[in-house]
Design a protein that fits this description.
The structure holds 2 protein chains of 2 kinds. Chain A folds into 2 domains: 203 residues, Rossmann fold (3-Layer(aba) Sandwich), CATH 3.40.50; 228 residues, Rossmann fold. In chain A, the strands form 3 sheets. Chain A has a 6-stranded parallel β-sheet, sandwiched between helices. Chain A contains 18 helices and 14 strands. Chain A is of the alpha/beta class. By secondary structure, chain B is an alpha/beta fold. Chain B has 3 domains: 255 residues, Glucose-6-phosphate isomerase like protein, domain 1 (Rossmann fold), CATH 3.40.50; 192 residues, 3-Layer(aba) Sandwich (Rossmann fold); 43 residues. In chain B, 50% of the residues lie in helices and 11% in strands. Chain B is built from 22 helices and 13 strands. Chain B has a 6-stranded mixed β-sheet, sandwiched between helices. A 5-stranded parallel β-sheet of chain B has the order 6-5-7-8-9, sandwiched between helices. Chain B has a two-stranded antiparallel ribbon with strand order 3-4. In chain B, strand 1 and strand 2 form a beta hairpin. In chain B, helix 8 packs across helix 13. Chain B is globular and about 75 Å long.
Chain lengths: 447, 553
């Protein structure tokens, strides 16, 4: 089938590569910037993608892209008109704040094409967007005397950064929102190669599918925030939250997923979705009080390591130097969108702390974000970062942080002091090694 | 010679008896259809209408002769140049310097005060920014969410009035910051607040010019004890949870405030003129420094207007002269301040301190008893509410009263849902209609309605009218216009003090009570002292009878 995918972010590229891989003829249209008719940024992105250069980190995606470009089934362009005439199905994969952008794009599509149009929206837009987009397109066609045959479906992206390809090609479930049979049949056929083990398709109305996506993210965030709160209480009660987590997770009604306490969650698709649930769901829908609280709690949690340090040094942080391990909002990505590290660093700087930051992949993003900022040294390795510091803070649980050379750490650091936002180490072992160790809801002090 | 025996004064007295005594406002308006034109000033976005006072062009000429005779021009120049016009305390009164532009150089007593002013504004800006960015941390490391201003008198009324008035100009960065005001010595405001606040996220501003005010220090002590429930280190408690605003740096240091937490002003700023100084910190926390500087700029605009415009074109001078005319020649004993805008709810309280503490005096600058009236009793309320309360007395009572009507013209231009906005704008028009209608009714009485409507009414329904008022309109209420309004009243007070030959910048009258309160407190606590008047003694015994009850198990 001929498919056009609009948007060159994670969801767009993964979708395009996976569909090309199973034999479809796919065009990726780079149109992530507004004013896409004449935007040179989009042209640059397209040129880079033609050379398999992507602007973010995602394991395996680069290889996939190279392969599919070589196969000739994947084309890259910045010309939306080419996309309009290419695809039998049009996938919209824009970021969640680009609804207006999508409206302009689909309006042009409706003006350009007079035959049947099938649109699959993967972007996280407010609930009800699919039906509203369809109405907009139909109206435009009617105005120019065309009897519209337009189908708009919702295929909420459930991809997780770092595991996006596997999520797409071997999904645990596929959430499809469809308001008519024709569109549903077309999409079902397109997804057939990824739906072979057993029927993973869950079909509902577009509005219900859009809302399900919000509810899933809301629930996950709530679980995380709840566990973070338990960890903060455990700190006060001097109970090891790790033991509690295992006990809680063993209850099948709760399960082990998303109950690791930590120093806050981040990422665009996660928190932005939540925010838009609170803010932009259809008119006259009340805000979710619970989710707003969850988000506020998470913002507080992003500073939890700062608060531990603050109390440890009795508010006197001025002139200290701290190593920060990990800055990306989670491992295996270079994305720092909404990352806990950003708030933490601002808090430390405000008290006159110098930061030595190491992250395996995100350093260029920090360089771009902060520029040459006083109080920040970007370090090429984890050990370079801890050289001469008064304390180490672990913010992102990259694999290479799990088992460091503790002897070397101890020698390099001024003080054997670790604040661990991801609970990587064992408090009693750390105590044995002579470290003062503070995790989230656990500490060498409780041992 | 007392001013009341001066040529200009006697001329006014004679003029009153000959020309004004038997005329009414109704007649004056009938005789001259250009009164508004003659007796109003429109400057900038402000309009002062003083045509509803019982006077003629002749009156105004005599009043202008009076201020000239009293040397107003020289006094204004002394005020702005930092002469020690606060004679009893041998100090300058330089609140105008606080709102002068940053590049204005002012030297007083060989001190480059303009530089000190800017330094403290910069210090204030750092504090404000730290709080707005969430980087002022409480003892546990959480960001401050609640700021409690502890102060009384000028350290309370000004910031409270301005914060209430300018809430809709709240800075985005301050959207979650809650401001509270605590003043009364009995602790009742504080006790109630503390129930809803958390020690982790509450910061106290301790505002006191002298840093010895017992009311404020008592409340501060209660706040400290409340914080100490959670904070064991005195250093952390003070560094993270207290900011001092005072003219007494030594006292702040003595009490353990670190330099970073000391915001300074100077003895040449009177308490009731101090909202322009660091005492305005709560205002800056609400508006941001940009908004606070707008307030200052509005005040400065009025300073320039006051200093540079001829007296007959001068808003504060006209406000003052109408007051003099009413109090000293028409026999008015009460003056009502009636803002037609709920945001100005605390303006009457603020002005009652400004006017009554400044000019509520009965000796002149030479220490001689004056033989004329000085400041009238000043009170007020949001006009539209007061209509349902004390206006009855204004319309049909036996007291001659003068009034200031104050209102912004446009409001609710943005930030409202469409349906609500239309309604609120209609309510604004209704409010203005009431403002204009009341001053008209007070002026004309029954003459405000058609003759046939008046016929057949009983005496109970009779309105005498003839009550004088001024109306101050502004385009809209903003930090700038509020600044101008307050400065206009400050200068009005100053002009009146020049006419009355009194020092408006001291307040010895409040000291005696403070002194006696100390003795009385000891008497209550110790249960011993006796008083030589039977009333105090009787009251004391009643108090003691219950105090001792409580102390028994």
């Amino acid at each position: 089938m001929k498919v056009s995918v609009y948007g060159s972010g994670l969801t767009g590229l993964v979708t395009a590569c996976a569909l090309a891989d199973v034999g479809n003829d796919v065009a990726v249209i780079c149109c992530d910037n507004s004013n896409f008719d004449k935007n040179s940024d989009d042209k640059n992105t397209a040129e880079k993608l033609q050379n398999a250069v992507i602007g973010f980190e995602e394991p395996g995606l680069n290889q996939k892209l190279t392969n599919q470009l070589a196969s000739g089934r994947l084309h890259i362009t910045a010309d939306v008109k080419k996309g309009f005439h290419h695809g039998q199905v049009h996938f919209i994969a824009l970021s969640s704040d680009q609804l207006d952008h999508a409206k302009v794009l689909l309006s042009q599509l409706a003006k350009e094409i007079s035959s049947t149009i099938t649109v699959v929206n993967q972007s996280t837009f407010p609930v009800g967007s699919a039906t509203r987009l369809k109405a907009l397109m139909c109206e435009l066609q009617e105005q120019r005397g065309v009897i519209p045959d337009i189908h708009v479906l919702a295929l909420p992206s459930l991809l997780q950064e770092g595991a996006a390809i596997a999520n797409f090609v071997r999904p645990q479930r596929i959430l499809v929102g469809a308001d008519d049979d024709w569109g549903l049949r077309l999409l079902t056929d397109l997804l057939r190669p990824f739906n072979r083990n057993h029927d993973q398709l869950i079909v509902m109305s577009t509005k219900a599918a859009e809302f399900t996506k919000y509810a899933i993210n809301g629930m996950l965030a709530t679980k995380l925030s709840f566990m973070n709160e338990m960890a903060n209480l455990a700190d006060q009660l001097e109970v090891d939250i790790e033991q509690v987590r295992q006990g809680v997770g063993s209850d099948p009604r709760i399960g082990y997923d998303y109950i690791y306490p930590g120093c806050g969650f981040g990422g665009l698709s996660f928190s932005e979705d939540l925010i838009s649930l609170a803010r932009t769901v259809e008119d006259k829908v009340e805000d979710s009080f619970l989710l707003k609280t969850v988000l506020d709690t998470n913002e507080q949690q992003k500073e939890v390591l700062f608060r531990k340090l603050w109390r440890y040094w009795d508010t006197e942080l001025k002139g200290k130097t701290i190593a920060l391990w990990g800055g990306a909002f989670k491992p295996n990505t270079d994305s720092i969108d909404n990352a806990p590290s950003l708030l933490l660093m601002e808090a430390l700087w405000a008290q006159g702390v110098h930061i030595r930051l190491y992250d395996p992949k995100a350093l260029p993003k920090f360089q771009e974000y902060f520029g040459d900022r006083k109080g920040l040294t970007l370090c090429a390795s984890a050990y370079e970062a801890v050289d001469g510091v008064d304390a180490l803070m672990i913010v992102t649980e990259w694999k290479e942080f799990w088992s460091p050379d503790f002897d070397l750490l101890g020698k390099l650091m001024n003080e054997r002091l670790i604040f661990d936002g991801r609970n990587l180490f064992d408090p009693s072992y750390m105590k044995q090694l002579g470290f003062r160790y503070f995790g989230i809801g656990r500490s060498s002090e409780f041992v | 010679m007392s001013v009341s025996h001066s040529p200009a004064w006697l001329q006014l007295e004679n003029h009153y008896l000959a020309e004004i005594k038997r005329t009414s406002l109704h007649q004056l308006f009938q005789q001259d259809d250009r009164r508004f034109e003659r007796f109003s000033l429109q400057k900038g976005d402000y309009l002062l209408d003083f045509s509803k006072h019982r006077m003629t062009c002749q009156t105004l000429q005599h009043l202008l002769s009076l201020v000239e005779q009293q040397g107003l021009e020289q006094w204004i120049s002394k005020l702005f140049s930092g002469d020690h016009i606060n004679s009893s305390e041998n100090r300058a009164a330089l609140h105008t310097a606080l709102r002068a532009p940053a590049d204005r150089v002012t030297v007083v007593d060989n001190q480059l005060i303009s530089q000190e002013i800017q330094e403290n504004l910069d210090h204030m800006e750092r504090v404000v920014k730290r709080i707005h960015t969430g980087q002022w941390r409480g003892y546990s490391g959480k960001a401050i969410t609640d700021v409690v201003n502890i102060g009384v008198g000028g350290s309370d009324l000004g910031p409270l009035m301005a914060c209430h008035a300018l809430e809709e100009f709240r800075l985005e960065e301050a959207k979650n910051l809650r401001l509270h005001f605590v003043s009364s010595i009995d602790g009742s405001q504080l006790a109630e607040k503390l129930k809803h606040l958390s020690q982790e996220t509450t910061l106290f501003i301790l505002s006191s010019k002298s840093f010895t005010t017992i009311d404020t220090l008592s409340n501060a002590e209660a706040a400290k004890r409340w914080l100490a429930e959670k904070i064991s280190s005195e250093r952390i408690l003070l560094n993270q949870h207290f900011i001092g605003c005072s003219a007494n740096a030594d006292k702040m240091t003595e009490m353990g405030f670190c330099k970073d937490n000391q915001l300074l002003f100077w003895d040449w700023v009177g308490g009731r003129y101090s909202l322009w100084s660091v005492i305005g910190l709560p205002i800056a926390l609400l508006l941001g420094m940009g908004g606070f500087r707008q307030l200052l700029a509005g005040g400065h605009w009025m300073d320039n207007h006051f200093r540079d415009e001829p007296f007959d074109q001068n808003i504060p001078v006209m406000m003052a002269l109408m007051g003099i005319w009413s109090s000293n020649f028409l026999g008015v004993k009460g003056h009502a301040v009636l803002p037609y805008d709920g945001r100005l709810k605390f303006l009457p309280n603020y002005l009652s301190q400004l006017e009554m503490e400044s000019n509520g005096k009965s000796v002149n600058r030479n220490g001689q008893q004056v033989d004329y009236e000085t400041c009238p009793i000043l009170w007020g309320e949001v006009g539209s509410n007061a209509q349902h309360a004390f206006y009855q007395l204004l319309h049909q009572g036996t007291q001659p009263v003068s009034c200031d009507f104050i209102a912004p013209v446009i409001r609710y231009q943005q930030d409202q849902a469409e349906g609500t906005q239309g309604q609120l704008q209609a309510q604004q028009q209704l409010t203005l209609a009431n403002c204009l209608a009341q001053s008209r009714a007070l002026m004309l009485g029954d003459h405000a309605i058609a003759d046939q409507e008046r016929e057949g009414r009983s005496n109970d329904q009779h309105y005498e009218g003839n009550q004088c008022s001024s109306t101050f309109l502004m385009k809209e209420l903003t930090p700038f216009s509020l600044g101008s309004l307050i400065a206009a009243y400050e200068h009005k007070v100053f002009v009146q003090s020049v006419v009355w030959e009194i020092n408006p910048f001291d307040q010895w009258g409040v000291e005696l009570g403070k002194q006696i309160a100390k003795e009385t407190y000891n008497a209550i606590v110790s249960g011993q002292n006796r008083f030589d008047d039977s009333s105090t003694q009787g009251l004391l015994e009643f108090v003691r009878s219950y105090s001792s009850d409580r102390s028994e198990p």
